[in-house]
């Protein structure tokens, strides 16, 4: 059977950078209006930790705030992200459709695994009709763990997958692949960091290169 391919979402399939700053600005303006924040929006801090679980994100961005305020900020932020997705302000990376079609034609089962929230992921899948190719989209919320390695293991068990590749832009994706004995393909896109990509088995700058890597190295 052809190998499965498991994709990260943010910074891999979806150009999150197109809606990240505006959504975060709106969120911190909201917090400022409630006197729960002062200062600039911590956009660069967020970029550095893109791919982390949401609990880590908000603990990093708002270390001195209560869990209730962090949850409120996260909910507001996701409402803005989803509104911006449905408003057409985001985009997939170039050649996503062509890559997915090539993999589908080769018989590869396709999945998405993300540390993002289910509603957010579904908004992207729905907006860009990714379920034409993707069998199932998985959120870290679906398991009792905040480790992406465990989420990938869950997918492998559910679908009885033997061979697979994980495609992503951050170390969490690479470690999740390696932790399950899978091929790790790094994407040199917006949020990628060279020291993290160095740990991947292969690195692409164009998603059209993924099918050949998957078929040649799994």
From TrEMBL:
InterPro entries: HAD-like_hydrolase_sf (IPR050155), HAD-like_sf (IPR036412), HAD_sf (IPR023214), PGP-like_dom2 (IPR023198). SUPFAM superfamilies: HAD-like. The keyword Hydrolase applies. GO terms for biological process: DNA repair. It comes from the Bacteria. One of its GO terms (molecular function) is phosphoglycolate phosphatase activity. It holds the Pfam family Hydrolase. Keywords: Hydrolase. Signal peptide: none annotated. This is HAD hydrolase-like protein. It comes from Paenibacillus lycopersici.
């Amino acid at each position: 059977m052809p190998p499965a391919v498991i994709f990260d979402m943010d910074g891999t399939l979806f150009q999150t950078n197109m809606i990240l700053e505006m959504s975060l600005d709106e969120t911190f303006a909201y917090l400022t209006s409630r006197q729960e924040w002062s200062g600039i929006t911590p956009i660069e801090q967020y970029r550095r930790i893109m791919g982390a679980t949401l609990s880590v994100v908000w603990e990093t961005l708002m270390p001195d705030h209560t869990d209730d305020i962090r949850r409120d900020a996260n909910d507001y932020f996701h409402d803005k992200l989803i509104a911006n997705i449905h408003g057409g302000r985001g985009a997939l990376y170039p050649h996503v459709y062509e890559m997915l079609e090539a993999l589908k034609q080769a018989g590869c089962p396709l999945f998405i695994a993300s540390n993002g929230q289910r509603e957010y992921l579904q908004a992207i899948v729905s907006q860009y009709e990714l379920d034409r190719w993707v069998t199932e989209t998985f959120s870290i919320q679906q398991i009792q763990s905040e480790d992406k390695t465990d989420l990938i293991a869950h997918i492998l068990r559910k679908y009885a997958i033997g061979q697979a590749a994980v495609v992503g832009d951050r170390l969490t994706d690479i470690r999740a692949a390696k932790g399950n004995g899978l091929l790790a393909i790094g994407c040199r896109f917006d949020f990628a960091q060279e020291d993290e990509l160095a740990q991947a088995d292969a690195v692409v700058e164009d998603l059209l290169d993924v099918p050949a890597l998957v078929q040649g190295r799994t």
